[in-house]
From TrEMBL:
Residues that coordinate or bind ATP: A23, I24, P25, G26, G27, G28, K29, T30
GO cellular component terms attached to this protein's record: cytosol; DNA helicase complex
Domain spans labelled UvrD-like helicase ATP-binding: 2-312
Organism: Clostridium thermosuccinogenes
Coiled coil: none
Name listed for the protein in its UniProt record: DNA 3'-5' helicase
Lineage start: Bacteria, Bacillati, Bacillota, Clostridia, Eubacteriales
Broadest EC class assigned to this enzyme: isomerase
Signal peptide positions (record): none
Molecular function, one GO term: DNA binding
Amino acid sequence: MGLRKGQKELVEQYRGGFCAVPAIPGGGKTHCLSIWAAEMIAQGLHKPGKILIVTYMNSAVNNFRQRIAKELARRGISGNKDYVVSTIHSLCLKIVKEKPDLISTNEEFEIIDEVTKFHLISSAVDEWRRKNEDIFRYYLEESNLSANKLSENYKKWNDRLCGVVLGAIGDFKSHGMKPLQARESCRKLPETSLLKHAADIYAIYDKKLKMSGFLDFDDMLYNAKELLTMDSSLLEKYRKKFTFVCEDEAQDSNLIQSEILTLIADGNLLRVGDSNQAICGSFSNSDFTLFKSFCEKPETVVYRITQSSRNTREIIDLANYFVKLVREEHPVPECRESLLPQFIEPVDPHDERQNPVTTEYGIKAQIYGSWDEEVNSVVTEVIRMVKRHPDKTISVLVPNSYKMRDIVRCLEDKNIPFEQLDNTSDERNRTIKVLGRIIDFIAEPENGEKFGAMMNECFLRDKYEDEMPESEFNPDMHGKESQREMLTAFLRKYPVEKLLYPAAGEIDIREIPPELLKSKIWRDFTDKLETVRGFLEFPTTVVEKLILYISEKLNFGREERAIAQKVAGDVRYLMNQNPRWRLSDLALELLSPKNMFNFFAGIVWELKGYEPKPGVVTVATYHKSKGMEWDIVFLTGLNYADFPVYLTDKFVGEYWFLKQEYKNPQALVKADLEKILGAGTGEDSILKSKIETISERARLLYVGITRAREYLYLSGFHANQGKWNENLPSKYLLDIKKHIEEVGAKWTGI
């Protein structure tokens, strides 16, 4: 693929200094940054050091490496000694490991994963509560509630408080505050200040981290910056090592990340991003204004990438209409700058990769009478599009995990192949589930139901897809699926011992249904019995070795082996900590939808990357869709709670079980943080939070719109009209629906 406007200027002209590349969705920023790096290396312009490319996703690291290597190979250059691609956390980990003694860190420290991190913060909150129960309860709205309801709300507030405190700790660390400094800075805040109590919990959490020999991701960033600042020789080493520093997805950077890269770059800093796709601020301490400010610096050279071949011209027009709508007509004036005037252009007529074209106007919007009606209607339309376009990729995007469950349930009911992009996805956690089924059976080998569940999950699943009779997503119950059901029913009632050890008693062949006895699924089942016997005969006294043995016997691939090794290591630690843990306890943990191993499996899955497949519907949240694209996209749940426009709209971030003045604890924490940093403006913190939420949700919808290549469906619902619990569609949906109906009418008239 050749170079387009903006890309060409970057590759041919940028040779040093501060440089910003604002890039629209689908603009090929990874492609042009890879070409630039290869061009610099080919000409030797990167010397005396290397080119460092920092990004935020593990999958993006692999993508960059492959693209640069491919471009260098095309130029006859082999090897990767001239460039480094890394996540920001991997980079900081290397810096911290250079001199751990300077930051009072043990050389054997471990990086804490998200599950363990939440366990630690929960423990810290519990410890704080034991001395501050009255303060904890102070924020709750306790009037007119039964004892049961109060107990339920205590748990909800406890869980939410853990998240609020983690956010505050991240903010403290990003501003260089250790626990003692944080507590001292908050000393003059009133006793009702959540930030003040977060500082106290921070001290408890930090102590637990150190006692366990852990660092979290925020620690790595903080300590890396501290090392580079206090040790001039170390900073000079990294400056000599990297002649150029490039930051991808710069709109998601935060203050401390920006400072680290600026230090190392020593003036040669290239930042690539799209401020209109900054959607991480609500659940991280990223600050999208940093990239915007960098672009506006007088010393920064700016190359704008504005052309994209991802979408049809109609979808491009809709995305540009939405940017213009927000900037010119948003009812809240403070939100009009939430989207910058970066308008997408289709590619030139001579471009080798043209924008897709459809024979019809491929955009529709619909408002339904309830969420259930929306779910059923969307899935019905998905089925129609799968039949009509079997070669195209399809996704359904949802605002949150609750709505995802409803979409998934409906797809399952109608037998539609799908894949979830979340931590409960079967695809992500299949390895863990397989291990769970086998361990569950080994813990109770006489249980026929567990035996059947293990065989189906580990040995017989998905083996008969090509033999399934053709149907409209309704398998012929006289086909292979019914044979699987017969096998499952047979295993539940037949003594497992006889199947595994025939010497224990002859199998009465008359008990086996004739259709099952003649089937391939039965032959495959009997072929696997020797492997299962091996599992039962392996000593269970050393569970981690059993797990590795299972992975070997099932011929796990590279990613699956990595997950199995992680499980084995964690199990050894868990059983040492709690000698009462049994195989059945491990099985229960492995089979739990929220088990402690899912986070690591998710990282492995991201490293592998995700490629949508035609005929398999992708179900994801709007946030998870960033960086991806599909031929056909359904944007669901476009209601005022998830996509607010007015300040009077309902806001998801507000907790109804708290007192009115504390319903948005994150906003209060951020306001107090600004106050202690001397950056407070005196604005109403709740009002400011609402403005930030409205702005970020506008960008989130923009991300959703730009995921679609050819067809785009937008939907919401209007329920309980005129009642106190009325649920309204987002104003964005109403405006967009009116717009596309006008454009669609013109299209029909052509």
